[in-house]
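From the pipeline queue, job 12 of 40. The input is one protein chain; the requested action is below.

Action: predict structure.
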Amino acid sequence: PTLLALSLAALAQAKFLAGLGSHGAPLERALRLQAQGEDSWIFTSYSPSLVNASLLVWQDDFEPARQTFASLRRLGLERGDDPLLGAALFWLAQLECRAENWWLALELAREGDDLVAQTQPALQRAAPLAYLGMVKGYLGDVDGAREAAETGLAIADRWAYSYMAILNLHALGFLELSLGDAQASHAFLHRGAMLKQRLGFGEPRAMP
């Protein structure tokens, strides 16, 4: 049941990101399977509850997503599961950034970056750095935003981590646009758009 649940959740996420609009049924089945073994569930990036909450974030349905990720954050702390805790912090930072809760998003992104830097492979820092860059840009910290996103992009490029390269490119593109440099902004955003196209993204609400 666990393998089937993970496979269905991955299928649902892929359908959503591709813009196919038929992700509901496999995700609902995956969530039911996860619920059958909730107490012993080992979380991964394709755990049904995590995938479901991430899709809610991309659809701007913030409150149920916030509740799920807050619960996963508590569970990560209770279990000493650093990857789960890092994932919850990453998604909470993204959610609060989208919800325009800038200072809370900044706190979450910093906490996630500190955790990942201490406990996970270097490539994982590309994720929290993207939202550090994004939020600092919204808050007017130009130098801090550029440093975070450029560092995140360098990490993502070094490891050919296209997903996180897109996020950091978006942060840099937004920053340059806010500073009035349309040419620099276009260079970052165009590269991000090409990466999304290459990966088969068809859902405009996702990433980021």
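Job complete. The chain has a mean pLDDT of 93.
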